[in-house]
Design a protein that fits this description.
Blueprint (H helix, E strand, L loop, with lengths): L1 E3 L2 E5 L12 E5 L2 E3 L6 H11 L25 E5 L15 E5 L26 H10 L7 H9 L14 E2 L2 E2 L42 E7 L38 E5 L18 E5 L7 E2 L3 E3 L2
Parallel strand pairs: 9-12
Antiparallel strand pairs: 1-4, 2-3, 4-13, 5-6, 7-8, 9-10, 10-11
């Protein structure tokens, strides 16, 4: 783990997606954070020690999903598959499908495995899985503010974790998508899907993969935007913890009362033409019961 010293930074962005605004000062106490996302090797050790079964390995309970089709009540998870052609970028169902048998051991479906990918980030992790691992390891999931502070690497107010230019000297700084998402992946960064942790340069705090590779869970319930900045230096928020659960529900699906937590960092599927969320300020609302093959996590330990 890497120790991040207490500091004040400008959280959020006014230049991209509305949920990132407004920029506002936040104070964060000292904490330790994992140098990399949790890997398949590390998660395997957790499973071996505890016998833990992930959310994606359990068949859904009809009582929790009333109205679900009986044939869909099978264990599985969401898997990205590039379509041959795209009718609309508004319809993510063209490239995401619920795959029976997909889980952290079988990231692309039941016939796949993680052999040779022990140092890749573990994926198909629902929020409860990340929490269970963190508790076993004597750690916690980071708050959104802690995560963003760490991701910025000491560079306040810049676009990316390494500065304002997406590539430095023509070198890719993170595992993202190059080409026209979702059907054309040029793999100019060397990776079609996840990459071994530490494959790209660390940020200013010595942290790897804070941007790209896999989205990372935080412990905060999602709110559609940040609080307005305070005008008084004495009133800067200290260690903010997100909003209440009731505000995290998806307003577009009022009949579904599944809480959503904040994801940070973007993934290998973030592209310039679709999801420019490979930035520290970027944030995404993820239902706590939804796992995919591009979502993982890392942990923190707060200094007492």
């Amino acid at each position: 783990m890497v120790r991040i010293e207490r500091g004040i930074f400008q959280m959020g962005s006014n230049n991209h997606y509305p949920e990132e605004a407004p920029v506002h000062p936040v104070a964060v106490d000292s904490f330790f954070i994992d140098e990399t996302p949790v890997t398949n090797r590390q998660f395997q050790a957790f499973v071996d020690a505890t016998g833990y079964i992930t959310f994606a390995e359990l068949a859904p309970d009809l009582a929790q999903y009333p109205g679900a089709l009986p044939e869909m009540l099978q264990a599985g998870s969401l898997v990205f598959r590039p379509p041959v052609r795209v009718l609309s970028l508004q319809d993510w169902g063209q490239w995401w499908s619920f795959c029976f048998g997909a889980n952290w051991r079988h990231p692309l479906g039941p016939d796949s495995s993680t052999d040779g990918q022990e140092d890749h980030p573990v994926v198909h992790i629902a929020h409860c899985d990340a929490e269970a691992y963190a508790k076993w390891a004597g750690k916690s999931l980071p708050t959104e503010a802690e995560w963003e502070f760490a991701a910025r690497g000491g560079l306040d107010g810049v676009e990316f974790a390494w500065g304002d230019e997406f590539t430095l000297g023509g070198h890719h700084m993170a595992n993202t998508w190059q080409g026209e998402f979702p059907h054309q992946n040029l793999t100019l960064d060397g990776y079609e899907r996840t990459s071994p942790v530490g494959s790209f340069p660390p940020n200013g705090y010595g942290l790897y993969d804070m941007i790209g590779n896999v989205w990372e869970w935080t412990g905060d319930f999602y709110r559609p935007k940040h609080d307005a900045p305070t005008q008084k230096a004495c009133c800067i928020p200290e260690n903010p913890r997100g909003g209440p659960e009731r505000e995290s529900y998806d307003p577009c699906q009022p009949e579904i009362r599944v809480p959503r937590k904040v994801l940070k960092g973007g993934s290998h599927l973030c592209a310039a033409n679709y999801c420019q969320r490979y930035r520290p300020a970027a944030r995404y609302a993820q239902p706590i019961d939804t796992s995919t093959n591009h979502v993982g996590f890392r942990c923190v330990v707060r200094v007492q």
